[in-house]
Write a structure and sequence with these properties.
The chain is an alpha/beta fold. Helices cover 36% and strands 17% of the residues.
């Protein structure tokens, strides 16, 4: 598999990463055995970057990954972990805690659940409005010096916050939503990252399945599937967005590939400093995603994609209002 560098200060990783969240949380019940098999299939295919958050399934996802990588040589994979999100026993969101003491506490639990002695990329999940980003990054930098963390990343932060963080310690990458229907980073965030030598780890490249080519109007999210409350999956918004998918399907059919593959390939085409995360929970979906690496998009292909799904074409916000309010103000 081709590799890409996560910024000037980060590791070299596979061209695609595996986002493991859905194996534990957010999309309804998942099959543990199939999740582990999917991680193994990804590693066997040359995927090296595994992404998680300590709050995915309240630790379940880290334990799942820990079980999957047990006995696998440490140089065959890198683990990226987000921290700081607070959740109640019912799964509801309570805010963020990125105080220095909390950073070190979260990291201790993460290392234990994963069964690892270091984390390759450690990042605050969101900006804590009550804690200067300099304090949070300084605490993670202490953990780099102590050997528990190799690289520092960020997640869903605006250009000003990114600059302030990078002034404290080199930042290897920004994890942020980037897809055909989520292009907000292109105005100021992506240029700032490129100026600072910070890579992009793009999540949501299939917009949580919306532009995968598999979602239908009568698809119903299972219990615990947050898409049941996502504005882009509701009413007229969904009708509008699925019409965009049908336009994209025509472009994919002319290329002889799937909708998901062409959507992933579009993200790959945006630059060698961008690593798409695919959120496959099953081996068949992983196989489909990996197919995006088997072809290149021509200028004519890219023009056709832009006509099918022009910038700003999506209807509805990425998150429900409460979650939108928790984003860095620059990212809303």
């Amino acid at each position: 598999m081709d590799t890409r560098a996560l910024g000037t200060s980060g590791p070299t990783v596979s061209a695609l990463g595996l986002g493991c969240m859905g194996m534990s949380d957010m999309y309804g019940p998942a099959d543990r055995a199939e999740g582990i098999a999917t991680i193994h299939a990804a590693l066997d295919a040359g995927v090296t970057l595994l992404d998680t958050g300590d709050f995915y399934g309240m630790g379940h996802n880290e334990m799942l990954i820990g079980e999957a990588v047990r006995g696998i040589p440490r140089d065959r994979f890198q683990v990226s972990v987000k921290f700081g999100a607070l959740r109640a026993p019912d799964g509801s969101w309570l805010g963020y805690d990125a105080r220095p003491a909390a950073v070190k506490n979260f990291l201790a639990h993460t290392l234990s659940r994963l069964g690892l002695d270091h984390i390759d990329i450690y990042r605050p999940a969101r900006l804590d409005p009550n804690v200067p980003i300099e304090d949070t990054i300084g605490a993670v930098a202490d953990m780099v010096k102590a050997g528990y963390v190799r690289h520092i990343g960020l997640s869903e932060m605006g250009a000003d916050t990114i600059r302030r963080a990078a002034a404290v310690h080199p930042i290897c990458d920004l994890q942020i939503e980037y897809a055909l229907i989520s292009r907000g980073i292109e105005e100021s965030i992506l240029p700032a990252c490129r100026e600072l030598g910070i890579g992009i780890t793009a999540y949501g490249v299939l917009s949580r399945g919306l532009i995968s080519g598999h979602w239908k109007k009568d698809s119903a999210g299972a219990t615990g599937d947050f898409r049941a409350h996502s504005p882009r999956f509701q009413g007229e918004n969904l009708d509008h967005n699925l019409a965009l998918v049908e336009e994209l399907r025509r472009v994919a059919a002319a290329k002889g590939v799937s909708v998901a593959q062409i959507a992933i390939a579009w993200v790959l085409s945006r630059g060698s400093d961008i690593v798409p995360l695919v959120g496959a929970r099953r081996r068949d979906r992983l196989t489909e995603a990996l197919g995006a690496l088997e072809f290149d998009l021509t200028p004519d292909d890219l023009a056709a994609i832009e006509r099918a799904v022009p910038p700003g074409a999506a209807a509805g916000d990425r998150y429900a209002p409460q979650q939108m309010a928790m984003l860095d103000s620059e990212r809303r």
